[in-house]
Structure formats: C-alpha cells, structure tokens
Design goal:
It contains 6 helices and 7 strands. The chain is of the alpha/beta class and 220 residues long. The two termini are 26 Å apart.
Length: 220
C-alpha cells in the first residue's frame, strides 16, 4: 500500500455537512490529525440547523476538533434538501466564490440519506480544482461500502474523536446509533483494511498523481 502525504506548506480545508454533526462523525479523526499540521486552515459549512436549537452545536463543534476553525451554518430544511436543489446549489456556489480549498471533505454520493447524497453530488460541480474526499456516516440504513482512501489514526486520536463527539452533540445522545462502539468499531474496521490501528475511510472519484516532473502544460 502506497502512503501519500500533502506537500509541506499551507493547506486550506473545506468541510461540508448537510447536518450539524455530519463532518465530525465522518472525518473527526482526520481533522484532529490535520490540526497538528502546520499551515492548515479549516472552514466548515453546514447547510441545515441555522436558527434552530442545533445551531450552537454546529458552531462550537468544529473548533473543538480544529482550534481556530471557522463555521457557517445555513437554515435550509433538514431532510428536504433535494426539494430545495436550487437553494443548495446557490449556497455552495456562494461558498465557492469565497474559498479556494486544496481539500474538500463532503458526504458520499451514494449515501442512503438524501440530504447527504445531494451535497456529495454537487460538491464536484463547484470545486473542480480541489481534491474531494467523500466521507462515510454509519447509520441504520446500512449503506457502508468499499472505500478508496484511508487516513490512519492511533488509539488516542480514536478516543479523542469519540470524546469530542459526545461533548459537542448532546442533542443526539438518545439516538440508538449514537454509540461509542459504533464510531470506534467502524474506525477499527477501516484501520484493519489499511493496516493501521484505526482509520477513517473516504471515497474519491478523481485523483491526479504527479509522479514525475509535474503536469505538462495544457494537460487535463
């Protein structure tokens, strides 16, 4: 298995979530790892929850994982994003005009939840020059599948992710899927798949590898 690392220097990361806890569940351990990397800046965009009781959770969670992270929360209707396609697209386009991320973290395009799926579908129509990694969210629907990219993490990072999830989203504690064994078990499974103690897994539709002297002028 070939291990790849981003080049040294500044790295701008954009995290997209349909709901307040999507990003932290899907890639919280990855964000904890990125937080240790010099020159990394992180911005979160959450499409639902604005103006409601979960907005505070959404605004406070990401900076716990990455100190200094900026978060914006929008008020699109939870569970109904496909019916508001134009508004979702416009929101992402507006964010796209203000950002030029190197890495975008977004839900999977085949996620069983319709809100997640729409955000995953639209992300590559807005950010065409960034590496897009689609994260996974465990759920009752049982939609987990094969992944293409992994971020290995150690036991301390696994434990810290779960600790911060519980501290950040008390509104979700009563849900039957909100379980440290669910979150930790998935990370152990993905770690086994990439020969790491634990891992978060992602899917990428298109990745360009510059293995020689760099891309040729005009290359696509």
């Amino acid at each position: 298995m070939l291990a790849l690392s981003p080049a040294a220097g500044d790295l701008e990361v954009l995290c997209l979530g349909a709901h307040p806890d999507d990003v932290e569940i899907g890639c919280g351990a990855t964000l904890l790892t990125l937080a240790e990397r010099p020159g990394t800046t992180v911005r979160g965009v959450v499409l639902t929850g604005g103006g409601g009781p979960r907005e505070t959770e959404a605004r406070e969670a990401l900076p716990r994982f990455v100190p200094g992270a900026e978060v914006e929360v929008h008020d699109l209707p939870d569970g109904r994003l496909p019916q508001h396609w134009d508004a979702v697209k416009q929101t992402l386009e507006d964010v796209g005009r203000r950002t030029a991320p190197d890495l975008v973290l977004a839900p999977r395009t085949d996620d069983a939840h319709q809100d997640h799926r729409l955000v995953g579908d639209l992300v590559t129509t807005v950010w065409r020059d960034a590496l897009v990694l689609h994260y996974e969210i465990p759920k009752w629907d049982g939609d987990l599948g094969a992944m293409t990219h992994y971020v290995g993490v150690d036991d301390a990072t696994r434990a810290r992710k779960i600790e911060l999830l519980d501290a950040s989203f008390p509104s979700q504690h009563a849900r039957d899927w909100w379980d440290p064994e669910v979150f930790g078990g998935l990370m152990r499974l993905r770690g086994m798949e990439c020969r790491a103690p634990y891992a978060e897994a992602f899917r990428a539709a298109k990745v360009r590898l510059d293995l020689g002297s760099g891309p040729q002028e005009g290359a696509r």
